[in-house]
Amino acid sequence: KHYQNNPQPKNEASRDHYQNNPNPQKIKSKERYHKDPGLQKQNSLKRYYENRDAILRVTKDKFLKYKLSDNEMDIKIGTK
């Protein structure tokens, strides 16, 4: 019933809808990035350094958790 009222295929309908209502948020963020691309890098570095200890601790824990010992059983399991 709904299809008969609107026989336009879905992808055409969504394309038309997008052209009528382009995503302003995406355009704004692109403009902001092109205005000052360094800012994004600075912010991500700042975030990394603020959380570095936690990040390294989690990474180290994960590494140690999966690190294989010289135990023969571990080697067998690890090579499966």
Characterise this structure.
This protein has five helices and no strands. With about 80 residues, it is an all-alpha fold. The protein has one domain (about 10-80). The longest helix is centred in the middle third of the chain and has 30 residues, at about 35-65. It is elongated, with a radius of gyration of 26 Å. The N and C termini lie far apart (about 55 Å). The mean pLDDT is about 75.
Number of helices: 5
Beta fraction: under 5%
Report the sheet with the most strands, covering strand number, pairing sense and barrel closure.
Answer: none
Using the CA coordinates, give the radius of gyration: 26 Å
| Mass-distribution shape | elongated
Q: How many domains is the backbone divided into?
A: 1
SS content category: mainly alpha
Instruction: Report the strand count.
Output: 0
**SSE pattern:** HHHHH
Distance between the termini: 56 Å
Poorly predicted runs of 5 or more residues: none
Mean pLDDT score: 73
Helical residue percent band: over 70%
